[in-house]
Design goal:
The complex is a heterodimer of chains A (289) and B (223). Chain A is of the alpha+beta class and 289 residues long. Helix content of chain A is 73%, strand content 8%. Chain B has 8 helices and 10 strands. In chain B, β9 and β10 form a beta hairpin. Classes of the chains: A alpha+beta (289), B alpha/beta (223). Chain A: Its main location: membrane. Chain A: Belongs to the ABC-4 integral membrane protein family. FtsX subfamily.
Amino acid sequence: MNLLLYYAREARIGIRRNAGASVASAALIFAALLLTGLLLLLRGGLAGVSDYLHSQLELKVYVERGVDAEQAAAILADKSYVASAVVQTGEQLLGQLESFFAGKPYLLEAFRDDALPDAVVLVLKESEQIALVAQELSQTEGIEQVVYPQQLAEQLVYWSGLLQSAGLAVLAFLLALAFMIVFLAIRLALYQRSKEIRLKLLLGARAGHVRGQFMLEGALVGLAGGTASAVLLLAAGLAVSRRLTAAYGAIVQLDAAALAVLAVCLALAGPIVGAAAAYAAVRRRIGDA
Amino acid sequence: MATTMATTMIRIEGLCASCGGRSVLDDVHFRLERGEFAYLRGRSGSGKSTLLKLLYRELSEFEGAIEVAGRRLRDIPRHELRRMIGVVFQSFELLEGKTVYENIAMAGDVRGMPRGRIREEAMKLLGRVSLDGRANDYPAQLSGGEQQRVAIVRALLGKPELLLADEPTGNLDSETAAEVLGLLRELQREQGMAMLVVTHSQELIDRYPATVWEMAEGKVRRR
């Protein structure tokens, strides 16, 4: 216990002596872990949206000009997989767009110049069939285009994958940078305190204890960065979660318990990164003889 | 053999060591009994410091046999050996950024001694070397002799069985050197520990006579 308290005191003094390097290390660990947390949150959110889109049964069939939309709807309604078929005319769609482009009439003019086609809104009996049905319909004569929500889900999954890959690369870079900064900070400390280390060993300190002091320094720096990222992520996550739940409760839900677990993981990851970097810095410099 | 283990502090038989390919110690035989005070004398480069460094394991490459307190040196874990041995250096080796007390307390802290006991022993020893009242000073505020006395107190904290002093008076004027050596001799008698002092000063040896081991060309002989 006396030893633990002593080396904890020494680690605190060491951090104070290398304040600049310690703050830089903690800031980088903070940035890397915050990015990790944000990526995980984003992935969770997009997965929710994707699941929601996949569960949708509706698809929109645009008919070619000159084709009677009412007749097409009647034919499609007879299909075994269709629950309902309702016509949406170009004028009706334009009416919806008017409210969407409110205050920007010049944008709406583009649609007026080239009249929107009529469409048939189909609701299927099962969502699993939607891609096959869309493919079949798009090859049918008289149908110009088939649009359905799962297309957006696929796009979301594609962009989410890209974002995650890019994010992981940035994350790996930041973590490597944080590791290097802690490593160099501890190496600098070893150089500055070489006389002190030699004396401690001469006075009977165990090499493992002296190494432990520096690992504790790294862990404390990492804990500062990890805790800061965890607190910020938790606060931001809860704030965003409240808004999203209020606006799109059915689509996006951030579980507060999962958010808390993620925050704890980030807070713990900080000291692990810091201690590992410190260990790498000291393991061959302070040896057992 | 049992008697040897009980009374002998250092036993060296057929010790050979080299440094940078050059033979520094050649078939050294040496003995220091428990509670004995002895000098190791020799010219610069004769191997005195190498012998001491081997004893406190700053160097570890050697051939032959070294026993400390009846145990083979190689069998004693380094930290344990260094807790049995106090070392005083010519250059004092005090940390400038720490106070006198902090410098001394470090010896107890690294061994896990309770803070209360460290303070008690440190203050008692500081009083013994006439430095009471200087505990909160920094080494730069002390004279050379005072700094060496602080280093002695640090070496004695934890009551070592053996004290090795590597030219402890080398950086001091002759009067202060005699004072410091006299103090070492008194403390050795009071605490009953074995002490080996490396010096090349015949004047000091004459003033505080004891066994002298003469070192020349890597060999040691008792004078």
